[in-house]
Amino acid sequence: MSDMNRRRFLTFAALGAVGAVSLGRPWGLQYAGATALPTSGAGTTLDGVATPIGSSGYRKLGAGPGWAAVVRGELTEPKPGREDRRTALASFVQLTDVHILDAQSPMRFEYVHQFTGSAFRPQETLTTHGLISLVRQVNSIGRGPHTARPFDAVVTTGDNTDNKEFAELDWFLTCLNGGTVIANTGAPDRYEGVQNSGATLYWNPESPLSDMYKKAGFPEIPGFFDAAFTPVSSPGLKTPWYCVFGNHDDAVSGTIPSGIPPLESMYTGSWKYEVPDTPEQARQIDIATKFDPSAIPAILSAVVTPARQVTPDLARAPFTPRQFIAAHLDPAHTGPGPIGHGFAADADRTGIGYYSFEIAPGVVGISMDSTNRAGLVEGSLGAAQFQWIENTLRAGSSTYFDAAGSRVHEPRTDTYFVLFSHHTSDTMGNLLPDPENILEPRLSGPQLLDLLHRFPNVLAWVNGHTHENKITPQPGRTPEQGFWEINTASHVDFPQLGRIIEITDNHDGTVSLIGTLFEADSPYRVDHGDTSAAGLASLYRELSFNDIHRDPQYTGTPIDQNVELLVPTGR
């Protein structure tokens, strides 16, 4: 069965009548339909979901019905009565791929968006408004909707910034810790980016120009830029939060290796390239961006119409991984804590971007750094980090399996583990050597899966990167060696979600991971003349839905949305 047909079949099974549908796995692989889990779904997608009004053209959004919770039993059979027996072990929130973005940066390649949709988004001037609205929602919900356990932690799983600029990093940290943001660089009194370039390639919100977005129904909004650059305040998270590296926090545009002098100087320069002479030249630039980044400056000068002079700004300077960590360690950015947001006190000197932390008593988080300092979109792990992960898992496991598959018993206190990374198991194939440690082997996603299967105390691997809701069972050779991989949609592209995960002991040899998606607190409907912070956050969502490059697959299927995931524990 193809992967697509398999997912369609599993979706059908999950949406069937209440009861198990066996798919014939040796340990009783099962799916159950919508379940009457006790909930308090206010503020989450259990209660309602942004839904388009109408069937074609540019569409506004309204409140649609919520998404029911689906019980998934591929790894172990759900046992009746567990709702009455269970006790809450932990409750945490995942935010991912918020892509806080300097929309006026000279170091961007918006003109290739016809080939790479993420190069330009019509909503990109409003990323801080969207994140602040999401922070408000996290604070408002405050606890797990199924267990009522207050949130123990918030984890942001990478691509916190879009283009590794200090300005973006400052805005990101201010949104999460609290304070006022003015998401403007360059000239303080005007916008200098592609959205007022007069080029039909982009949405020009303040112009009557019939650009390619207006032809798709996008509105004209007078005063848009003044509103976007009005100071906006964030309350900051009320829950301790932890940070994970993403490729956009480490590489130019999330793709190109750092440290190429011509590109580094473009960040703080005064020339912005906006429009290629022809679509074919745009395609050539897109190819160069991916495969020959050192040639980009020469290609730009050769095939792009004359560059636009803009106001230079040192705040746009690119940061290094150590500087990214140092900013989190800065006491001015502590917010609700912890100091460093997970990074060790000396990590700004060592450059080590991975760590472990206690989510709740008996539940440990392992935050991995899956980015590759050599650049490119995909990730991998260095051998030292891989060994550290194994050592951390062994330290909290009284029973595990060695590399040969033999069961090992040690006098350890058992701990459950949840792993976090930016990349997914199938986007960790970039094995290029780390420029800082070229002799260190790099390890792939499948190799990490093999390691995690050796430790029955692993419950889940939570990640982002794909911008898609997708939940995958990762069965092991025995039932107890299975765990769940939980991939969550971004907050820059529609559907713009975060995910709550509650962990419960069902006292029947199983643990449940109860996942609930939630949206920002901004209203669904927005008047295009509403320039309030809440109105702009609503517009951020609406524009993302109508983006001509929107991928409907990002929303996922019901088995990837609100779920209860059963894990056998053997305890």
Description:
This protein is an alpha/beta fold. Helices cover 22% and strands 20% of the residues. The protein is built from 13 helices and 25 strands. Strands 1-2-5-25-24-23-6-7-10 form a nine-stranded mixed sheet. A six-stranded mixed sheet has the order 13-14-18-20-22-21, covered by helices on one side. Strand 21 and strand 22 form a beta hairpin. The longest helix has 15 residues. It is globular, with a radius of gyration of 23 Å. The N terminus is likely disordered.
Topology:
Elements lengths: L2 H12 L6 E2 L7 E5 L14 E4 L8 E4 L5 E4 L8 H4 L1 E9 L31 H15 L11 E5 L8 H12 L1 E3 L42 H5 L3 E3 L6 E4 L16 H7 L3 E2 L6 H13 L4 H8 L4 E2 L11 H9 L17 H4 L4 E6 L2 E5 L13 E2 H13 L3 E3 L5 E3 L6 E5 L21 E2 L1 H9 L4 E6 L6 E5 L8 E5 L10 E8 L4 E9 L14 H14 L16 E6 L3
Helix pairs in contact: 3-4, 3-13, 7-8
What structural class results from the helix and strand content? alpha/beta
Helix count equals: 13
Q: Please report which band the strand proportion falls in: under 5%, 5-15%, 15-25%, 25-35%, 35-45% or over 45%.
A: 15-25%
User: How far apart are the first and last residues' alpha carbons, in Å?
Assistant: 35 Å
Number of strands: 25
Radius of gyration: 23 Å
* Poorly predicted segments: 1-36
What is the arithmetic mean of pLDDT?
Answer: 90
Described by the principal axes of the CA atoms, the overall outline is globular
* Helix percent band: 10-25%
Largest beta-sheet characterization? 9 strands, mixed
Kindly report the spatial arrangement of strands forming the biggest sheet. 1-2-5-25-24-23-6-7-10
